[in-house]
Structure prediction request, 260 residues.
Amino acid sequence: MQPPGWYGDPWGQAPLRWWDGTQWTGAVSAAAHPPVATGGASTGWMGYGDDADTTLRSAERVGRWLRKVLLLLPVVAVVGTLSFGFLTRELLAIVRDIESLDQEDPNVPIPAGWMVGAQLLSPLSVVVLVLRMVWTYQASRTAKALALPLRRDSGLACAAWIIPIVNLWWPYQAVRDVLAPEQREGSRLGWWWGLYLASSLAPFLGAGMGATGSTGAITVGALAAGAAAAASALIERNLIERAHSGMRARLAGHAAASRV
Prediction:
């Protein structure tokens, strides 16, 4: 259940309407920004108090690293597609020629070079995943402290990146939730998620192209995967900045309202 607080009026009769934890009430507000949780009360995940400024600073630190690492994703997609493509082609060639090999010779040629190329990508992929999870957690905590309505708690939003099946759409919803409603317009969220899913299939694309035995097909597949990863990374970098700037604006608005 969403905790009590001021949220965007679902009926559009006022900027904000009070949610008492179970239902919408008749209390409305024309304030530009809802109240902010500033610590003290245990409102966060696992009982931690949420201080919006502190959690936002943490999200911004992680976000800076994430935005840098995202620039390497096109390389990961291209190399991954090429590696799996040529590896698949060579393995299939071995299978086709296995009967012509000397049965007394136990040595079967293994395309180790492409296997190493594919394995070298794993650490970088893990780094990107961990940074995404940490940023999602910190951004969700900040959004909760700023009284933005969230579908899921910060811990579950973070874990959604590695939960099978639900990781096909829950991370998208988590990123959408940390954006203020007015920021979602023109954010290209749908494009980001579609391109992210497409670029995630790069190894399978490479294997499929490798099955054709065509170097050209493998190369074209690698370029397509790289283009999808590049577009996805650029949009994601923009989404991170949008989320930070939006939460900073809400935090500043609350501080100004408090002084009044």
User: Anything to note?
Assistant: The beta strands are 5-8, 16-19, 24-29. Residues 32-50 have pLDDT under 50 and may be disordered. Residues 36-259 form one domain. The CA atoms of residues 125 and 176 lie 23 Å apart.
